[in-house]
Write the structure tokens for this entry.
Amino acid sequence: MAKGVRLRSLSLRGSWVQIPSPAPYHRYKLHTLLVIQIIQGSPLDIHHYDKRLEQALVKLKAERSVLEENKKTILSYIKYRQAQGLSIPRQVCYIFTLRKLSTLLPNRLENANKDDLVSVISQIEREDTSFEMKRTEKECIKCFYRWLKRGEEGEEYPLEI
């Protein structure tokens, strides 16, 4: 039965039909283990977001085009958002976007004015990325500057945004 079974079909031509053999036991065992992990609620991270977060932090610290003050500001914002319970994939997205913002701005993040932010947003809009990616990056920038200029999540956005 390792090769399967051949049966005669009911067609008029009298052809034979090959029925494949069942999958090996180890596939069933692996599938069963995955189902048990999902049911028990254990984290099944197929995208390796913990590793991505570590890599994003290492890249941020190693980036030479980002000012040291900007690195400290970005890291303190990420710690603030971690305390709020922001998911790890979203933290990776924020680090990526804020590192990009810091490289596009000519000076420190705190000193950015409305013209600087308009030029950065227009540059993001010109990029060949999806609408959703552009929307996400703009959302990250808005939340960051609300935190940077006002300090609290529930308050209105600053005038620069």
Notes: The chain has two domains: 5-40, 49-149.
